[in-house]
Amino acid sequence: MKRKRVKELLAGPVTGEKVLVKGWVRTKREIKNVAFVALNDGSTINNIQVVIDISLFPADLLRDITTGASLGVTGTLEASQGKGQSVEILASEVVLYGKCDPDIYPLQKKGHSMEFLREIAHLRFRTNTFGAVMRIRHAMAFGIHKYFNDRGFFYLHTPVITGSDAEGAGEMFHVTTLDLNDLPHTDKGAVDFEKDFFGKPTNLTVSGQLEGELGALALGEIYTFGPTFRAENSNTPRHLAEFWMIEPEMAFWDLNDNMDMAEDFLKYLIKYALDNCREDLEFLNKMIDKDLIERLEFVLANSFVRLTYTEAIKILEAADHKWEYEIGWGRDLQAEHERYLVEVHFKRPVILTDYPKAIKAFYMKLNDDSNTVRAMDVLFPGIGEIIGGSQREEELDKLTRRIEEMNLPLKDLWWYLDTRKFGTVPHSGFGLGFERLILFMTGMSNIRDVIPFPRTPRNAEF
Ligand code: ATP
Ligand code: MN
User: Fold this and answer.
1) Which residue has a Cα nearest atom 3 of ligand 1?
2) What pLDDT score was predicted for residue 109?
3) Candidates 385, 430, 451: which one to mutate for ligand 1, based on the most atoms within 8 Å of Cβ?
4) Integer Cα distance of 270 and 272 in angstroms
5) Please, are residues 124 and 117 in contact by the beta-carbon 8 Å criterion?
6) Residue 258 CB contacts under 8 Å (≥ 6 apart), including other chains
7) Which of 88, 159, 222, 424 is the most buried if burial means most Cβ atoms within 10 Å?
8) Quick one: which of 198, 200, 206, 199 has its CA closest to 169?
């Protein structure tokens, strides 16, 4: 018989037909001669109730049906007489795949802290919370590809190993096959990267943008969606050393087009989650964050505020608030400032534009004031920055000057500069941090809990 998913059984009509389900035991209760087993197979947050007539099965089999054990159950699907579920399976055959010793199984019925679950990250997928988060994560990845595909964007695979370190100053992981205990040296005593695998120093990428631009300036509209790596030693609830980023890049789009898409894209994804992940969202709303669904619906229904960095600084300076980090024109905004604007002042998402050039990347288009650049950061409630983007500098001379001013390795960027020599066009793009998006969509509070295997300083266990 072909196995059916629990999700399918719970959704379909009750027919009295014979079915086969397979999954893991969440709970077992025995009342008189009947055992009630809640079985979950990961297809949905909901369990299916299996009803076992104790007199029909061997006692040792019944004893081994404990939380975490894996079973295959054949039986008839009936309307349930009990409360809490509409259907149940009256078991006629039970196969035990794997026992799960309750004396050593770390997941008990009681709730566990997120910190404890991080220590058993290899098992935390089995909890309701992580099941819900991982299903939402999947739906968001799918929704992202659908959004771009439906709009004629091409998915471009940019490299994970990169030879340029223009963007990452100091925050990159080196990639090498050299023996660290026996490094080759040049005559001058430096490490001889000629002898390394690529014949030069290489790193893990911090962003696919520069390569993404190369694609956009031929294909029109592209996006990347891949892992990025930052060796920043910031132990915050919003930073990972390995995270996924979505980076669309569009030829002939200006900053306004870019902002319009960022807002439309985020709202599309919120709607996609509300339409496709309802049960998981309702669970998280009940257990993790009671304002979650309301917040998603609020962001969906309201337009984002757009204002310049300079205007934002004025608001922050006038605010009656004690800041941990000082504010002032020219300083970068910290999460506390971003969240004040969003959560206290405007009470809705904000897109900040036109930042001082000194605190933004070299490739952002210089404004006519020669002081600010056409940057845009999208700031979200509970998160702070979720998207960072800009219109790019398409003029060769201005771009070259910025690279020199910032003391970046001009000669390593020859291929990037070529795009400005050969048919340059205005273009724009942005980067959305996938895990920051999932934080927002799930109401989880720590970024370590929205990625299957978090990588943070001193932590790469699983
Ligand atoms: P932040 O100031 O929060 O560190 P950033 O300015 O370094 O962000 P960008 O370089 O613009 O961020 O990267 C684009 C997006 O990638 C950010 O808006 C954010 O959503 C996400 N992001 C950046 N760094 C991390 C990180 N270490 N872990 C997870 N997501 C990140
Ligand atoms: Mn950063």
Assistant:
1) 385
2) 72
3) 385
4) 5
5) yes
6) 250, 376, 389, 390, 391, 428, 429, 430
7) 222
8) 206
> 234: which residues sit within 8 A by CB, 6+ positions away?
none
Going by CA atoms, what residue is nearest to atom 8 of ligand 1?
385
pLDDT digits (tens, 9 = 90+) for 349-408: 999 999 999 999 999 999 999 999 999 999 999 999 999 999 999 999 999 999 999 999
pTM: 0.96
Q: Say how many Å lie between the CA of residue 436 and the centre of ligand 1.
A: 9
- Nearest atom in ligand 1 to the alpha carbon of residue 234 is 27
Fold for 6-98, please state it. Answer: OB fold (Dihydrolipoamide Acetyltransferase, E2P) (2.40.50)
Question: Nearest 5°: CA angle at 264, between 261 and 266?
Answer: 105
Phi then psi for residue 221, to 5 deg, are -120, 125
Cα 211 to ligand 1 centroid, rounded to whole Å: 18
Which CATH entry fits the domain spanning 125-171+206-449: 3.40.50.970, 3.40.50.300, 3.30.930.10, 3.30.1490.20?
3.30.930.10
DSSP class of 366: B
- For the chain, give every domain's residue range: 6-98, 125-171+206-449
Q: State if residue 433 touches ligand 1 by the CB under 6 angstroms criterion.
A: yes
Q: Which atom of ligand 1 is nearest to the CA of 437?
A: 20
Which residue's CA lies nearest to atom 18 of ligand 1?
387
Q: Are 372 and 357 in contact (CB under 8 A)?
A: yes
Beta carbon of 389 within 6 Å of any ligand 1 atom: no
Q: Where are the beta strands (DSSP E) in 261-397?
A: 305-308, 350-356, 372-380, 384-391
Name residue 255's amino acid.
Answer: L
The alpha carbon of 43 and the centre of ligand 1 are apart by a number of angstroms equal to 32
Ligand sitting nearest the alpha carbon of 332: 1
